[in-house]
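Format is chain and fold; as here:
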Amino acid sequence: MSISEKPAAPVGRAPGGRSSWPVLQEPQGLIVYMCLLLVAALFLFGVAFALTVFSLKDLVTFTALVAGAAISVEGSRRLGTPTPAGFNRDLLGAWWFPVVLLLPPVYSLLIPIPVYLMVQQRTRRTLVHRRVFNATSVGLSGFLVSVVWHGVWGGGLVGGLGGSPESGEPLTTGPGVLVAVLCCAGFTVLNTLLVALAARISSGPGNSLRPMWDREALIVDAVELCVGVTVAILAQLSLFLLVIAVPPVLLLQRSLLYQQLQMAARTDPKTGLLNAPTWEQEASVEIARARSSRGRAAVLIVDIDHFKRVNDSHGHLFGDQVLLGVATTIGQQLRQSDLLGRFGGEEFVVLLPGSDTTEAWRAAERLRSQVGSMGIAVDDVPVHITISIGVAVIGDHGNDLVELLTAADLALYRAKETGRNRVCLPAGRPGVGGTIPGPREAELLDPSGPAEPTDPREVN
């Protein structure tokens, strides 16, 4: 696992003479955290280097594994690299794990350097400090697990730090393979925790993160673990067997990248939500299903209030954090059947299948209240974020997705005109007879009124 790596941008000067180096625009806590990990890695490298007896066999094995990783990187290069928000998983562990198990721990700190240099040069240039952090996280995780592995077979901490010359032999036995699997699983957990802590510091204590593991992530980690241990066993038997290990690893890597690229084509890179075309396609299907069964459905358009002012005052990197925080908060308040997407800019869209006007209005008020209570800060100074929401319901405000979006957009315009930080329903729809519920009528749908403000008349 690695933290999301954003594309590199030109380095210049920010307004007021402040340096606009990307690393200096990260939260201060994240900068300190990355520096501490880097210092720890350098210190451990010095200790391990002093205790390690280098041999030609180990250097050849290390070179062969780096070459295997290079072939994997080069072989999947033309597929492109997805840029998901949050966490990113790959199959480079197929080459980390053999180094952890077969070579002295000092090599575990070294192998991320050439591999990530190749990734940076041959796939996509990204923010260097995030690349360095991912390499440091992999190196530290591999080093600590390698010390445990060599300590088990080499006799104690000193033996573990220097590496056991016969550490690969247990891989030909059942108990040895079991210990190897447990160690590699520990590597995955430790690396994930280091990355998750960085993501937590970056997003701030008030924002919730997506789960570190879901079903797909567990499958990828399990495959990576099995392949990595298998490659280690083959390398222990003979380095020439790595020739037959590279093609299946490459195929698995390409399959994973292809799946991620398919997902990237459907999602927004900054928030991980469905992008506008995908949301519209899936929402149209749900609307058609609701019409055919004479069911109900509602559409919400959510707009972050004064988002341009947030960008101008605190910078676009903070604006990206706000987008991700709002997206995460909204997603946590929705049902599994609801459809959430980013419509563009600071706007989000939500489809609520089976919801009538009352339910849709209550759901919108819940979203508005939860986003308003988000804790986001810049240099320990809290920044208050609010949203305005336009609501439209099938049958009342439109009969297809285009009409519902138009009605919800008009309702959103009313919400912004009447003060923002509120929920509005459309005042009417041209060409349709009958009374369309307006904002004043909407207040009567929930006698208890909105959560904030407390006066029901202030919902609009």
